[in-house]
């Protein structure tokens, strides 16, 4: 039995550590195998042992003998993710500002906004595709697929922004107005800079959720695939490590985006800490 102050850790600590270790192994073990096998030699296969080490299969993705439309699908996924990111950030910030004060129907609007989270993605994508077909609009990645993905990213953006605004101190705005700043000046020079880490978090969610989205995009995408759909199509006709190389590249892009976002948040927090230290020293 663990006694407080005895210096011994409780058994729950070791149980949690073991569970976390198994979770990491289950999550990153298959990914590690894919990363390693993507560097197979030109005569290598889809399984271990490796037959040489090379970058041959990465070059095959861009060569004349490529097995799929990697460049086109990658470009479409990046463009779509940037568009989804922009709309999600703008809508989430505006909604956060609007919901700071209760208005008629605010509760209904909120639940309608997050209702799409509980709808199966494939079913929602089917509904979007049928709606565009009924309206006589040709499905495409920049129209119907965009709308389907926004039903996934906007609720997350709203929830994050609501949490950020719940910790926002309105005294900063009152101080700015007391100094003669107008609403626009207060919003641009006071509110948004304070909310910037939360805005970056919303942007990160918007980009990664769109970049990796499959079920909501499957039906309303039209004739040109995004990258997840292209990878799925390649699993049915590609029997070479080129598929692993594609998975490695797309995962690397996700990690780079996450690293940039987290680094930006860390730099903002460090700058604020330095400014606070200087202010305290000046006082």
Strand % is under 5%
**Number of helical segments?**
11
CATH class: Mainly Alpha
How would you classify the helix and strand content by structural class? mainly alpha
Measured as a percent range, the helix fraction is: over 70%
Mean pLDDT, all residues: 85
Q: Which residue ranges are poorly predicted, with pLDDT under 50 across at least 5 consecutive positions?
A: none
The topology string of helices and strands comes to HHHHHHHHHHH
Instruction: Quote the CATH topology.
Output: MetI-like fold
* Radius of gyration, taken over Cα atoms and rounded to an integer in Å: 24 Å
Secondary structure topology:
Elements: H1 11-37, H2 56-62, H3 70-98, H4 106-114, H5 121-135, H6 144-166, H7 171-178, H8 183-212, H9 215-218, H10 227-234, H11 242-282
How would you characterize the overall build of this protein?
It is a single chain. The chain is an all-alpha fold and 283 residues long. The protein has a single domain, classed as MetI-like (MetI-like fold). Helices cover 71% and strands 0% of the residues. It has eleven helices and no strands. The protein has helices at residues 11-37, 56-62, 70-98, 106-114, 121-135, 144-166, 171-178, 183-212, 215-218, 227-234, 242-282. Helix 8 (183-212) runs antiparallel to helix 11 (242-282).
